[in-house]
Amino acid sequence: MSSVLTNILIGLITSLITGTSVWLWQRAKSASVGRRKAAFFGISPGQTCLIILNHHHRSPWTMAHHDIRALLEVATLVDQLGGQITVEAAAEIRGSNGDRTEFCIGGPETNQRSAGHLAYHLPGIAFRPFSEQPDALAIVVGDRQFLWTRGEQEYAVVARFTPQGASRPVLLICGQLGNTNRAAVHFLKNQYQDLATSLASTERFCLIVRVSATSVYGHELVQLEQDVTTEAFA
User: Fold this and answer.
1) How far is CA 135 from the centre of its chain?
2) Which whole-number Å values give the CA distances from 70 to 2, 30, 53, 189, in the listed order?
3) For residue 214, which of 37, 67, 152, 220 sits 20 to 30 Å off, Cα-Cα?
4) Minimal CA–CA distance to 107: which of 67, 149, 152, 153?
5) Contact by Cβ (8 Å): 218, 178
6) What CA–CA distance (Å, rounded) separates 10 from 4?
7) pTM for the full predicted model
8) pLDDT digits (tens, 9 = 90+) for 90-132
């Protein structure tokens, strides 16, 4: 075999080995990222995940547009991680989430299960009711209030905990309005890697996230405002 053909053959073999190695490395990296993401959200392949629906604040039989989008975002997340989806209305479900990871979406005025989770598991968090008062919909943590300012700044509570007797966590998403529920889901999906390294624990946490310039950017300009885990679970 001539030296030219030998060099070509060696080059092809080297390229094949290099390409295969890169493909295997990328696949391993993707699998590792997927495992970390699944661990953060508490989802295993084939596992059933429970999504709890809230309702429109003016009607128990409808959902707000942004809450529907939040539901779809969660459903897409579960599907990407290989989970199965069960959807139930807050007014119809009783008891523990058991062996199902639960995503409970909506504040206490539109989701009675959220109200129960807050009262029983996060007693350090309170929501002011909707009214004509300046503190309407404010989220209260200790002596601090996170005030709702339409179109400028809005807030949501994002928490994870595992109820007594359950083997899977609850992820609670309580925004002041539907847009903030959607923003909180968007925040979790995009920031889970940073949260996994910065939080003291991913098994139990409670965060306040801030949504800014909602009249311009909708649900997308969202960031961590404060970690209130200690106060929330106290």
Assistant:
1) 26
2) 65, 25, 10, 11
3) 37
4) 67
5) no
6) 10
7) 0.83
8) 888 888 999 999 999 999 999 999 999 999 999 999 999 887 7
